Amino acid sequence: MRIRCPYCGERDNGEFSYRGDAAPRIAGGDAATPEALHDAVYLRDNPAGPIDELWFHAAGCRAWLVVTRDTRTHAIASVAPARAVARARQTGDAP
Questions:
Q1: Where does the UniProt annotation place the signal sequence (predicted)?
Q2: Could you tell me the sign of the dihedral formed by the alpha carbons of 46, 47, 52, 57, in that order?
Q3: pTM above 0.90, yes or no
Q4: Closest alpha carbon to 18 in 61, 53, 69
């Protein structure tokens, strides 16, 4: 699988570390209940289809990226800096 880093260009996935689902998981932030924290840590969906994932470019620019990948085919639809995605979620804009 090849991942197109926005800073380094297309690279082999061996240069990256997978860190999991990029969707916000804990509702309530610091005020989250123990049940919400338990659910965020131990209960995960396993969707068949497109999902936003966190990847770290460990052997390159060391940037955190949000990769939109289809779990059935491994086809990558988009790659964006995680910081831009987080800001877009806060403001409601598209990354």
A1: none
A2: positive
A3: no
A4: 53
Backbone angle region of 92, left / alpha / beta, with phi > 0 → left and psi within -120 to 50 → alpha = left
Other Cβ atoms closer than 10 A to 62: 9
Tell me, rounded to whole angstroms, the distance of Cα 43 from its chain centroid.
17
Within 13 Å of residue 9, how many CA atoms lie on the same side as its CB?
0
Helices marked H in the chain: 34-42, 82-91
Q: Where are the beta strands (DSSP E) in 31-73?
A: 50-56, 64-70
Q: Are 6 and 67 in contact (CB under 8 A)?
A: no
Domains observed in the chain: 2-24+44-91 (3.30.2270.10)
Report residue 69 as tokens.
């990948």
Tens digits of per-residue pLDDT, 19-62? 988 887 776 667 788 888 888 888 878 889 999 999 999 999 99
